[in-house]
Amino acid sequence: MLKELFQAFRPKEPPSLPDPDAELALGALLVRVAQSDREYKLEEISLIDRILARLYQHNAIEAAKVRATCEKLHAAAPETDTFGKLIRETTSLDERLAALEALWEVVLADGAAAEGEVKIVEEARRAMGLSFKDSETARKKVEQQASEP
Fold first, then answer.
1. Which pLDDT score, from 0 to 100, does residue 18 have?
2. How is residue 15 annotated by DSSP?
3. Between vectors from CA 33 to CA 89 and to CA 50, what angle results, nearest 5°?
4. What are the CA-CA distances from residue 9 to residues 3, 15, 16, 72 (Å)?
5. Rounded CA Rg of the chain
6. CA distances from 140 to 104, 115, 132 (A)
């Protein structure tokens, strides 16, 4: 009887996650970068929501729902390069460059680029088929935007 009681409180099946598309893959990468320093701050969460809203024309609620799905994908997720390859195979060069800029936005959100964060960006960059120069350009663009009033 005790066994039946405990089983009643356990979920029947783990919730199924959607197959990632480019949006979910980028979102999961953004979450992965933000969580890489073991401090997933409200500012980073809000930034990810704003990035998803900007890139995929979501309102605030839709962006938050997408981010929540991305958090689950990240937790159950394949390697960083799998997400990067999915983005490379399903988006244009301009969209991949925008994704790289978005990753740098999250890395630089707190004003410092931690080694673990940069490593994830570099893995994603290579998997997305982008050059080191593309990454440097994206980083400089994000830094410049952050310094503007």
1. 58
2. P
3. 80
4. 10, 15, 19, 21
5. 17
6. 9, 17, 12
DSSP-assigned states of every residue in 36-90: TTS---HHHHHHHHHHHHHHHT--HHHHHHHHHHHHHHHHT---HHHHHHHHHHH
| 107-113, Cβ contacts within 8 angstroms, sequence gap of 24 or more | 107/33, 108/139, 108/142, 108/143, 108/146, 109/34, 109/43, 109/44, 109/47, 110/41, 110/43, 110/44
Q: How far is CA 15 from CA 12, 72, 73, 144, in A?
A: 9, 10, 11, 41
* In contact, 54 and 112? CB cutoff 8 Å: no
Segments in the chain below pLDDT 50: 1-2, 5-6, 8, 13-14
Position of tokens 């999250």?
Answer: 106
Dihedrals φ, ψ of 94, to 5°?
Answer: -60, -40
Taking the model in full, what pTM does it have?
A: 0.82
